[in-house]
What we know:
The structure holds two protein chains of two kinds. By secondary structure, chain A is α/β, with parallel strands linked by helices.
Amino acid sequence: MLLDIKGLEVKLEEEDKQILKGVDLEVEAGKVHAIMGPNGSGKSTLSYVLSGRDGYEVTGGSARLDGVDLLELEPEERAAAGLFLAFQYPVEIPGVGNMTFLRTSLNAQKKARGEPEVSSADFLKLVREKAKSLQIDPDMLKRPVNMGFSGGEKKRNEILQMAILEPRMCILDETDSGLDVDAMKLVSDGVNALRDAGRGFLVITHYQRLLNHITPDVVHIMSDGRIVKTGGPELALEVEENGYGDILGEVA
Amino acid sequence: MAKAALKQQKTDATEARLAGLRLPESGAWLREAREAALGRVQAMGLPHRRDEYWRFTDPTSLSAAEPAPAALFDPQEAPLFDSVDRLRLVFVDGVFDAEASDDLALEGIEIERLAEAGAKDIHWARDVYGRLEAQGHEKTDRPLAALNSATATDGVVIRVTGTPAKPVHLVYERASERADAVLHHVVKVEQGASVTLLETGPGAARLSTGLEVDVADGAACHLVRVQGRDHERRAETSVFARLGTESTFKTFTLTFNGVLTRNECVVELTGDDAVAHIAGACLGAGKDFHHDDTVFVTHDAVDCESRQVFKKVLRNAATGVFQGKILVRKGAQKTDGYQISQSLLLDDDAQFLAKPELEIYADDVACSHGSTSGAIDPEALFYLRSRGVGEVEATNLLTLAFVAEALEEIEDEAYADELRERLAGWLERHAA
Lengths: 252, 432
Ligand SMILES: Nc1ncnc2c1ncn2[C@@H]1O[C@H](COP(=O)(O)OP(=O)(O)OP(=O)(O)O)[C@@H](O)[C@H]1O
Ligand SMILES: [Mg+2]
């Protein structure tokens, strides 16, 4: 199993607030899983806990990537192991150029995996090619990371990072929010281009719209810190039409 | 303590300190200048913790008769600006080393040793030596600068008449653990001329430098300084610059380590449309690191621009101080004055003390100042780590980004790049 989450329970470190109350989720290599669910149900928390953000305490359960215990690893080790999170709110970093950021990230991962670093020339070529396919203006690459980027540009920048880092397991947290129709298509094409037998996706979204472009194999509904229902693509359509009321009523 | 008692205490301490003092032998005009400077020290008294601009920094070890010894340090790296074609003037423990220095002849610039210039009956330097320093006390006493003018044992006087093909590099080396060096340089950049000065190295266990720069109309002076990495060294530097019409003065100082550094910079914009940029960055670790930038910019003409940009990276209980003032005199309309001082505190024990001030007597001016103190942004750090960048490397990257704004003040990219590399090296070595 590529990503294997069992009974994951998470509370906030600072407060006595349980957010994840036993999440069970398996993502196989080659598959796209979608997670939908009401605001505040714990979707972003799940993605942050998997990527190793501070501020949470795991009180139970496990999360493994290719059999490796993710929760034991530092965030950078998880990245080197192949985990990638496209942030719901990408972070602005003044003073750090986008190119420096991309190259440092790629080389850090390569180094951690014992692979040779990429040369400047190869790196430039790689970035130019990927940026072009996402229609990212080369000028944007010269600016500091996400500084002055529009909401949609930030999301495209996340996908650019994903395309360059080529992670095994990609988590996309509301990458569709803030995207116009054309950008949604570009981003989806970017994701679809990466779909292959060895790679898994976990796509968090509120809208069926994205799933029209990135057809999921499995759809999960998350509510109050648990996966409460799992089905095929038709589950997303059901949410789109009727909201969460029926589904949540059914499982309650 | 009552004011009178404090004053008496200062007078007594100053008299005791100056009692055995003998001014260096010099020719007529220089002797006069030294005596006048000594008179200023006596009148002002040596600095005291209670003085307004010494509250954050203890001056005792700077004004004491004897310096504290400081271990010699071999940085084991290439000398700074080694790849630049430059005219090197080497001082070892504050004494000019002619052998180690380059030939002083260079088109567009006249360089003399202070003692030679001082021995002449008539010399242009007479109108600058101690003069800019004396004017610099108008609002605030700067007794250590006056003491420097009085007691400097060596230095150079430089007159720039054209645009010399290379920069002049003042190299301050050390040989002894106990040297107390007092250097004073005078620079006059004539109308339309332009020069770049580089100044690097620790210089002595205790180094005092005075630099007076007279920038004539349409002239330009760039000064890039890097203070030595010797952990135990102390330094007190004073730069006084006077700017004529449409002239430019830009300075950047990078400081690594040292137990105590006090860098004062006093700039007076006296001609219209003059531009002054004063910037600096320091990196220090440990409770013994104390770094103080004290800047005073006076606008006394119309349409002038001044910028102060200071960044301090402090770790492990290090202390940073910034005291910066912009004074806009009556009639100095259209003044554009900017001041920012920021510290990056890499742990909870480091501290930054700031005293930003504006004093404005003109009504049509744009002046702003700001001071911030903060830690590494945890969101940015996590973002980098989530992309695979290790914690130390990510912290260093964010630290370099923090300092980058100050480095941008350096006009010449090549110098900025070299300093950036040194910074990165320091960060790597000091990584937690
Ligand atoms: N650091 C925090 N401090 C306080 N509350 C938090 C924190 N992080 C998460 N929460 C709370 O945990 C719950 C789950 O938040 P989370 O961001 O995971 O939801 P979500 O499913 O991603 O919602 P949305 O669809 O709005 O993005 C919310 O009630 C949220 O307020
Ligand atoms: Mg969310």
